[in-house]
Amino acid sequence: MSDINNRQAFITMLGLQDRMNAKVHSDWRNQGFAWCRAAWIECAELMDHYGYKWWKKQDADIEQVQLEIVDIWHFGLSAMFRPGADIDTLAGEIVSELSNYEPSNKGVLEATESLAAYCLRSKSFSVTLFWDLMAAAELSFDQLYKQYVGKNVLNFFRQDHGYKDGSYIKVWQGEEDNVHLVEILASADIASPQFADDVYQRLTARYPAA
Fold it and tell me: CDD domains of this UniProt entry (predicted)?
């Protein structure tokens, strides 16, 4: 596990996911969206990037595999929400589930299949099987947290600055916004409870003034 305060990190990610889902539907928790279906379909996309076709030459694209894992985590977090459970409770449950976690040492394809099968069978999400997939793809918790929060904050930033109506400026000082995000994340303090707010403020500081 990471040196990050894991409970606080999970609270941050669950809160961001709740806010993002609310942009799609204000009462998203009660809509019965099939998050587990979205998760296993992302698993299939991950396998394409890793390569499973023995009848042709394929090279594993680990960077894309890790990005797919981050995408799966968006849906996995969403699937954990249930009526009557607040974010602090959910974060505690995740920490408890991982407290005795031992890696299965599966390969990437096997770990992906195990998670997808669980999603299909249970119509829910397994944090421990997801952790197996992270371990197989050599994606650390710090990397997951940094990439997840960064992607969410950038999405919120875009929406707040005119992405929907087309007024958003994507290229600043000769670089696209996602490049600025990478630079900001490289020096940001991911252990800070205000990590997400700090990233947003640093994006704001770089964004062209009106």
Answer: NTP-PPase_dUTPase (cd11527)
Q: CB of 125 within 8 A of CB of 79?
A: yes
The Cβ of residue 132 has, within 10 Å, a number of other Cβ atoms equal to: 23
Per-domain residue ranges for the chain? 1-139, 140-210
Could you read off the pLDDT of 117-128 as tens digits, one per residue? 999 999 999 999
Bridge partner residues of 175 (DSSP): 172
Residue 172: strand pairing partners: 175
The runs of H, that is alpha helices, within 25-140 are 35-50, 62-80, 87-98, 108-122, 127-136
- The token pair at 56 is 């042709």
Stated pTM of the model: 0.86
Domain range 1-139, CATH class:
mainly alpha
151 touches 170 (CB < 8 A): no
**194: Cα within 13 Å, side-chain hemisphere:** 5
How many residues are given for the chain? 210
